[in-house]
Amino acid sequence: MDSSSLTCKKLTVITVLAVLIQVIGLALFVLGFFPVKPALSGFSGVEGFYQPGADSAEFQNTTNLSESQLKYLYQDLSLVPPLFDRLILMVIDGLPAEFVLGKDGQPPQKAFKEAMPYTQSLLSKGRAIGYHAKAAPPTVTMPRLKAMVSGAVGGFLDVAFNFNTQALLDDNIIVQFLKVGWKIVMHGDDTWLKLFPGMFSRHDGVSSFFVKDTVQVDQNVSRHLVDELGRTDWSLLILHYLGLDHVGHLGGRNSVLMAPKLGEMDEVIKTIDLNSLPTNDNNQGRTLLLVVSDHGMTENGNHGGSSYEEIDSLALFIGPTNFGSTSGTPNKANQVDLASTLALLFGVPIPMNNVGMLMAETFKSLTGMMDLVEQEVTIVWKRPFVVCI
């Protein structure tokens, strides 16, 4: 009886210990694989234009300033005069940069290059600056959009949130634009509506989970294009096309639908470029077209990991004549560099948690700024200051 009782006690103790070990092991795995990254609260303001350690007494009180007054104050404090007045952000979901810029010094595949003649002409004429913008894993849409607008690196926990996107509460370039009175319009992937609820003057969202749809999902975006380009009531127009990513999921990189889809995107770029130039009639101002992709894709069209094919995303800046270089040599950057670069191009503070650097080629058209862009420019991660070293 005693021996049997002792055996039961041992089994109970062993079972409890085994459960505790499993719980502790699971907790260590979760904390290690899904670490909680500390983030600075609040939003960047005038202090973002001063060097670290500057006397806070020098900072101007902006509490009672209007949006336009705040905008001009930021422009006065910035070392870089704003190059553009409006931004068109075109996101081509899943587009590998090598489809447009080539790889390892070689041009893109013939079929892909011939599918985008207008885009290739912009590069050859010095109208565009192309970057292989390295995306950090996980290479799924929601964390990649957050990285582009905040300049902060996410974690693998974002994979779970990708299916149940929550509002982005950290400092980001969208909020900074709103603070200076920008009106923002969005058409495309409804992930934007979930990340930035109530921030768009107009919007038409489409779901990204109907992967068999490669046609209507993009037509729902393009149907607004001509009308929006003729309007003057927005400063930022976001167009997020999902069709190319869906083509990849259905048939991989070499799908028979890939070249036609690239041709469709080329026509969109052509339409934007030909219809968004400043004129005296509509007083639209100087417009920058930025074509980006959130991630690339593997040979069979999948993404989410850290292979070269998945992290090779595109950043293509399209501006006026002589904005880029006719050398045609693509540049390299990180996807998180977009937030700081856009902040300086448009004269707003760099987001608080930004870890990106400047994409220096985009500033070479600035008169008298060659000394700045030829130096290595880095961003102090704790505070959004530009430091030239």
Structure, explained:
Belongs to the PIGG/PIGN/PIGO family. PIGG subfamily. It comes from Nicotiana tabacum (Common tobacco). One of its GO terms (cellular component) is endoplasmic reticulum membrane. It is a single chain. The chain is an alpha/beta fold. The protein has one domain (47-53, 64-381): Alkaline Phosphatase, subunit A. Helices cover 37% and strands 14% of the residues. The protein has 16 helices and ten strands. It has helices at 2-33, 67-77, 98-101, 110-115, 117-124, 141-150, 158-161, 173-179, 191-195, 216-222, 225-229, 243-251, 258-275, 308-311, 337-346, 370-373, and strands at 86-92, 128-134, 184-189, 202-206, 236-241, 287-292, 312-318, 331-334, 377-379, 386-388. The chain has an eight-stranded mixed β-sheet, with helices on both faces. The protein is globular, with a radius of gyration of 24 Å. 41% of the residues are buried. Mean pLDDT is 86; it is low at 278-282 and 367-389.
Q: How many beta-strand runs?
A: 10
CATH architecture, please? 3-Layer(aba) Sandwich
Number of helices: 16
- Write the H/E string, N to C: HHEHHHEHHHEHEHHEHHEHEEHHEE
Which sequence of strands runs across the widest sheet? 4-3-5-1-6-7-2-8
CATH class: Alpha Beta
Give the number of domains: 1
Largest sheet: 8 strands, mixed
